[in-house]
Amino acid sequence: MSARRLFTQLSRVTGKACRAALSPSPSKHSSECLKPLNTSKFNRIPPKPRRGVLLGALTSSSVIAVALGVQFQESKAALHEESKEAELSNSVPDIQKFRLAEVERHDGASENPWVTKGKSVYDITEWVGAHPGGEVILHAAGGSIDPYWNIFTIHKRQDVYDILEQYKIGEVDDVDLVDGQVPTKAIKDPFTTDPVPDERLHILTAKPCNAESPGEALSEFCTPNETFYVRNHMWVPSVEEQEHNLVIELCDGTEKTYSMSDLRNRFKQHKVTATLQCAGNRRKDMTKHARQTNGLQWTVGAISTAEWEGVKLRDVLADTGVNLNNPSPDDKHAQFLGLEAYGASIPLCKAIDPSGDVLLALKMNGDTLPREHGFPLRVIVPGNVAARSVKWLRKVVISDEESTTQWQRRDYKSFGPNDTRPDWDAAKSIQEMPVTSAITSILNGFAVAEGTEKGLNVEGYAYSGGGREIVRVDVSTDGGKTWDQAELLDDKAMGTKAWCWKRWRYALGESAEGKTTLMVKATDEAYNTQPQSYSSIYNARGNLATAWHSVDIKSLDKGTD
Amino acid sequence: MSARRLFTQLSRVTGKACRAALSPSPSKHSSECLKPLNTSKFNRIPPKPRRGVLLGALTSSSVIAVALGVQFQESKAALHEESKEAELSNSVPDIQKFRLAEVERHDGASENPWVTKGKSVYDITEWVGAHPGGEVILHAAGGSIDPYWNIFTIHKRQDVYDILEQYKIGEVDDVDLVDGQVPTKAIKDPFTTDPVPDERLHILTAKPCNAESPGEALSEFCTPNETFYVRNHMWVPSVEEQEHNLVIELCDGTEKTYSMSDLRNRFKQHKVTATLQCAGNRRKDMTKHARQTNGLQWTVGAISTAEWEGVKLRDVLADTGVNLNNPSPDDKHAQFLGLEAYGASIPLCKAIDPSGDVLLALKMNGDTLPREHGFPLRVIVPGNVAARSVKWLRKVVISDEESTTQWQRRDYKSFGPNDTRPDWDAAKSIQEMPVTSAITSILNGFAVAEGTEKGLNVEGYAYSGGGREIVRVDVSTDGGKTWDQAELLDDKAMGTKAWCWKRWRYALGESAEGKTTLMVKATDEAYNTQPQSYSSIYNARGNLATAWHSVDIKSLDKGTD
Fold first, then answer.
1. Minimal-distance CA residue of chain A relative to B522
2. Coiled coil located at which positions (chains A, B) (predicted)?
3. CA B406, CA A19: separation in Å to the nearest integer?
């Protein structure tokens, strides 16, 4: 079904726009772009890895190309070659040698992509579908992966090495070595044109840029653009607005292309205030209070709120030909594709719900969308995990199935505390977020002069997905034995439902004297509330760390007051 | 605004239908009905009680006419008469005497309704609005409340006596006593025509009938009509289908009347499978594990599932004149009124949402709606607390405000664990339910032969409101330290969203040997999960007792196997 094929063409990483990145046909790519790939065999449900490893030990961040291995209960994947399997199980007494010319034939367009690392040769055919970074891995196929890993340094970890090692099929023939090494070609660092992040942001990784909002940004209802948290899976595409188009593709193959000018002038512009939150927000707390989780160790700042402005996705879909009142039975999902190869989807019912407020946003807090937040066009899916608000949007595909990307099928899901053999296909993608809250005005270990904690004003946020309003925030100073209610602060939000966090304030009183831990939990309008412990919701990926949030206060010695 | 006035006319309680109960005008009542009341002064937001008492000590079940007192922070209600207040505060040295003729003038139509109890006289003006049973209390006004309390025996409790005592203004003059007593008139017991409940149901109260489903009924996906839990606030109205009409009243005063035949023949019939759950389900557990709660002490059986059949409320509203695509700004709530005086409302957006599946149901599990479940017509609001699925539906009022009944404004709300001074007006009515689960195949204290617990199959349900599907059920045999996943059972539900409970099964294994407590918690598709403890969600009304459900297994002595 070519109409739904996901092309992994990448925008060029230099300053000028890459028109070919928007082209539906691989043959139209610009020579300046990274080579397009024949990925039709990979772009459906990812195959299961040949030999898995325990989730808890090996799953990793959602950052591009981090390996993620799973011990599947019924791994039925065919072996590459029986003879090679035998070799491997015999501790590889006779290492098979491959000429580099043969390796090069196993490029991204091949049925069996190979890579080299050092002198070793790996057949990654079965890994491509499970690669958290998606099919970008195919760019390295046919040659050495080392120069890529020198840029995407997040791969330089033992657990990633272990995964690759499973796919080893031999080594490069000595006759092709130069000074005893496999010659590698230089590749361009795609991150060189990334915007420089605001220095107030707390940087977790630089390439790709992942940075959380500082406390002062979290104290405002709308987060300033400069200090809005950044969550990138890859580099920031460079594109000129006048050269960017959005393609909408329907189930019946209909395609329609919209320029940014079309979107700006032909459709009614709407403003929606919405909070975006990463599924990994507060992951660090889960690691601290339960056990190791794999992924970016966010504290409370992988969440921000902005006023978004643009067109309603439903209006554009109606223009393309979707029957909003009676969609075809095949119209089940709206898949979003970004310029940098990231992709995700939401149920079509959310996309076309008049109360769903799903936007194609061109502006953020009144300004042009900043590059790191998706310029020139991004999706905003209020109430859902931010991973669905795809940035640098180049295409929307209406489909009978969810996006086939890793980020839809193998990441942004959650499993039971002891679930080391998750059934990925059966698990529901995270869409609406559960209720959560956090203290933001003071950090863990905040020091106060002895006795002055009772005069402290504490602030924070509470948020629930699906537009469910926060109805109560409870604060405890005695470890959850008793609770009092925080004041919910007014806000001026635009939108059909409660898409935004609720900011709250609590003045500690006499009863707080000598108490060293503050705890907070929120309740939303469906009266869902937060779990008490991280251990009860532990999952190896550390997603949705929504347990009661606590902050320890440290007393200064009297003399230091 | 007469168009939105709530009349408290009651259907007659004998076998024949009371047409007057459907009449919009008090003057048209049948002489067979209980007297109509001029309740215009009571039918808005209830006034605050003159002198409150602590919520924890006095709030009570949602059963009709049980007293509910609240200590309000700023009670500004005017005193009835300064002089009487002075008398009361002086320990009533000179008791004021009233002739019965004067008492009789303070009937339900009076500005200041009085009642007598024993020889005492009470001015209940300020209590009417706070009475959990609604304005039904006015039927006793002008005379003795004793014959009513002899039928509604749930009032015979010290906390209710205490509330009444606050409103004492004097005593009946001795000249009107007969044999030293205030003469009382006989009143008809409205419960005499109630259906006899199935003997398998667990009866909590007989008048009104409140009965929970037995374990065997909870083991089926659709609960049989006979063992579907019963939650009545009053008696079961007797009405003939051919004499029953539904009135729809719009904001602009438009009224349209539909016979049952109209609903059956003029509108498309739909089937929706939906779970109904009382806000008090599992309240008994909250009492046991936290502290005293006021209300019916349900265990796990105030929940059942049925296939409902009828017309979509949105279709009927469209026929009456509601613009479904662009409702008027005043069209905010759909208020439902039952024949017996019960009333509640839902937001209009839910009522008209094509995915909301709100039904006016005429059939239940393929049969005519049983009398105790709302014959001939009831509302079904899938995903919301069952208190909104009003039975014996006589009228739908589209309004800019919520239903003004106690059940919308003063009951079916929830507050913080320590919230003894709740702001009722600021609190959101419970609509969508939070995620919950329970073990149903074995009851607490279930006895097994020592060592055989490891061969036990356990079953139960999990449910979440708002149509949010259950994605996982976790079972623990070690007090929540570790969890395993239960098997989710297939079901055949009809409807747009996941309106039904998910039944689950878990086979205990070797690891359960010697373990005595089973625990269960569920997660829904928004990844909300249940709180660990009842204390963290405690509220004096005992609503939404959704903490992890646990069942203790008792080991039989070896000899008794």
1. A416
2. none
3. 64
Of A431, A458, A419, A316, give the one whose Cα is nearest residue A377: A316
A460 forms bridges with which residues in the sheet?
A439, A504
Contact B416 A485 (CB under 8 A): yes
Interface pTM, i.e. ipTM: 0.80
In Å, how far are A237, B227, B230, B402 from B216, measured between CA atoms? 60, 9, 16, 38
Q: Tell me what pLDDT residue B132 has.
A: 67
Beta strands in A250-302 (DSSP E): 255-259, 269-277
Residue A256 has, within 13 A of its CA and on its CB side, a CA count of: 14
Query: Per CATH, the architecture of B202-409 is what?
Result: Alpha-Beta Complex (3.90)
Q: Are B434 and B464 in contact (CB under 8 A)?
A: yes
Distance CA B507, CA B441 (A): 12
Q: How far is CA A438 from CA A54, A302, A384, B221, in A?
A: 32, 11, 18, 39
**Any bridge partners for residue A14, and if so which?**
none
Where in chain A are the domains? 37-176, 202-409, 436-560
With beta carbons less than 8 A apart as the criterion, state whether B288 and B552 touch. Answer: no
What is the distance in angstroms between the CA of the first residue and the CA of the last residue of chain A? 71
Encode pLDDT of B525-556 as tens digits.
Answer: 999 999 999 999 999 889 999 999 999 887 77
Name the catalytic one among A19, A231, A244, A549. A231
Q: C-alpha A496: how far from its chain's center?
A: 26
**Chain centroid to CA A150:** 22
Residue A555: CB atoms within 10 A of its CB come to 15
Q: In this structure, which amino acid lies at residue B509? A: G
CB A310 within 8 A of CB A362: yes
Structure tokens at B136: 């039904």
Predicted confidence at residue B190, as pLDDT, reads: 87
The pLDDT, as a whole number, for residue A178 is 92
**Residue B445, Ramachandran bin (φ over 0: left; ψ between -120 and 50: alpha; else beta):** left
Q: Fold for domain A37-176?
A: Flavocytochrome B2; Chain A, domain 1 (3.10.120)
DSSP A265: H
Nearest by CB: A432 against B417, B465, B526: B526
Looking at chain B, the whole-number percentage of residues with pLDDT higher than 90 is: 62
Cα–Cα separations (whole angstroms), residue B13 to A505, B187, B336? 53, 11, 21
Closest CA to A344 of A316, A378, A321, A303: A378
Q: Distance between CA atoms of B41 and A177, rounded to whole angstroms?
A: 96
Of A355, A472, A529, Cβ closest to residue B349? A355
Active site residue A231: yes
Q: What is the CATH topology of the domain spanning A436-560?
A: Immunoglobulin-like (2.60.40)
Name the phi and psi angles at A83, rounded to 5: -65, -40
Interface residues of chain A, partner chain B, Cβ below 8 Å:
349, 355, 414-419, 427-428, 430-435, 465-466, 468-469, 471-472, 474, 480-485, 521, 523, 525-533, 535-537, 544, 546
More confident call, A58 vs A311: A311
Active-site residue flag, A131: yes
The one catalytic residue in A131, A410, A472, A503 is A131
Interface contact A544-B531, CB threshold 8 A: no
Q: Which residues pair with B436 in a beta bridge?
A: B463
C-alpha–C-alpha distance, residues A340 and A328, integer Å: 30
Query: What is the C-alpha separation between B471 and B522, in angstroms, rounded?
Result: 8
What is the spatial order of strands in the sheet that A114-117 belongs to?
Answer: A97-98, A168-172, A120-123, A114-117, A143-144
Find out whether the peptide bond into A183 is cis, omega within 30 degrees of 0.
Answer: no
Residues B204-241 pLDDT 10s = 999 899 999 998 899 999 999 999 999 999 999 999 99
